[in-house]
Amino acid sequence: MKFVVLTLFPDMIRQAVSHSVLGKAVEKGIISVEAVDIRDYANNKHNTVDDYPFGGGAGMVMQAPPVFDCYQDVTSRLVSPAAPVVFMTPAGRTLSQPVVRELAEHEEIILLCGHYEGIDQRVLDEIVTDEISIGDYVLTGGELAALVVMDSVSRMVEGVLGN
């Protein structure tokens, strides 16, 4: 099982998956986790990835071009170019054990972590295949939710847990 996390805070993912059951599964090569920094795909000198919403409104949203470029680079390296792209959002379907089992059927999963007030709608329309929520509340970003998904899905992968 391979998880690819598209995020603005890759170290948050890398540090968390280096411990406990996930860390042991990574060490054994049963799962792999790649945290990709979306800022590396920004095409401006300050690596800015946020902008005002196109239709107006409060707050900032993540721009589409850096996310699209990051996604294209990642999918060019995957075994399955049809890997699901899961956007972590409180507006998504609630994570449950049946959803976890469904996700565990894939060899590779891309987890997209939003920040600010959200993400450009074009990203959701063009590359996101599923939107998942870990509960009826709002976090500052999708990284913690992505870690919950990785932890719960990893438990379904043979060899991750003992007996």
Provide a descriptive summary of the structure in words.
The chain has 163 residues and is of the alpha/beta class. The chain contains 6 helices and 7 strands; from the N terminus they run E-H-H-E-E-E-H-E-H-E-H-E-H. The chain has helices spanning 10-16, 20-27, 64-75, 97-104, 121-126, 143-154; strands spanning 2-7, 32-37, 50-51, 61-62, 85-94, 108-113, 130-133. Strands 2-1-6-5-7 form a 5-stranded parallel β-sheet, sandwiched between helices. A two-stranded antiparallel ribbon has the order 3-4. Strand 5, helix 4 (97-104) and strand 6 form a beta-alpha-beta unit. The longest helix has 12 residues, at 64-75. 33% of the residues are buried.
Topology at a glance:
Blueprint lengths: L1 E6 L2 H7 L3 H8 L4 E6 L12 E2 L9 E2 L1 H12 L9 E10 L2 H8 L3 E6 L7 H6 L3 E4 L9 H12 L9
Parallel strand pairs: 1-2, 1-6, 5-6, 5-7
Antiparallel strand pairs: 3-4
Question: Could you write a compact summary of the structure shown?
Answer:
With about 160 residues, the chain is α/β, with parallel strands linked by helices. It has helices spanning about 10-15, 20-25, 65-75, 95-105, 120-125, 145-155, and strands at about 1-5, 30-35, 50, 60, 85-95, 110-115, 130-135. The chain has a 5-stranded parallel sheet, with helices on both faces. The chain has a two-stranded antiparallel ribbon with strand order 3-4.
